[in-house]
Amino acid sequence: MFQDRLQALLLPAVQNAFRELFGQAPDAVAFQSTRPEFEGDITINVFPFLKLSGKGPEQTATAVGGHLVQHAGIVERFNVVKGFLNIVIADAHWQAFLHEAAEHDLLQFPSTGQQVMVEYASPNTNKPLHLGHARNIFLGDSVGRILQAAGHDVVRAQIINDRGIHICKSMVAWRQFGNGETPESSGLKGDKLVGKYYVEFDKLHKQQVAELEAGGMAPEDAAKSTPILREAQEMLRQWEEGDAEVRALWARMNGWVYDGFNATYARMGVGFDKVYYESETYLLGKQDVLDGVAKGVFFKKPDGSIWVDNTAEGLDEKVLMRGDGTSLYMTQDIGTAIRRFEEFPAMQRMIYTVGNEQDYHFKVLFLILKKLGYAWADGLYHLSYGMVDLPSGKMKSREGTVVDADELMEEVVQEARKMGEELSKLDDFSEAEKDVLYEMVGMAALKYFLLKVDPKKRMLFDPKASIDLQGHTGPFIQYTYARIKSLLRKAQVAGDGPSWSGGTPEQPTVDNHQLLPEERAVIKLLHQFPAVLNDAALKLDPAALANHTYEVVKAYNSFYQSVPVLKEEDAAKRAFRLELSATVAHMVKKAMWCLGIEVPERM
RNA sequence: GAUCCCGUAGCUCAGCUGGAUAGAGCACCUGCCUUCUAAGCUGGUGGUCGUUGGUUCGAAUCCAACCGGGAUCGCCA
Question: How far is the CA of A524 from the C1' of B44 (A)?
Answer without folding.
Answer: 28
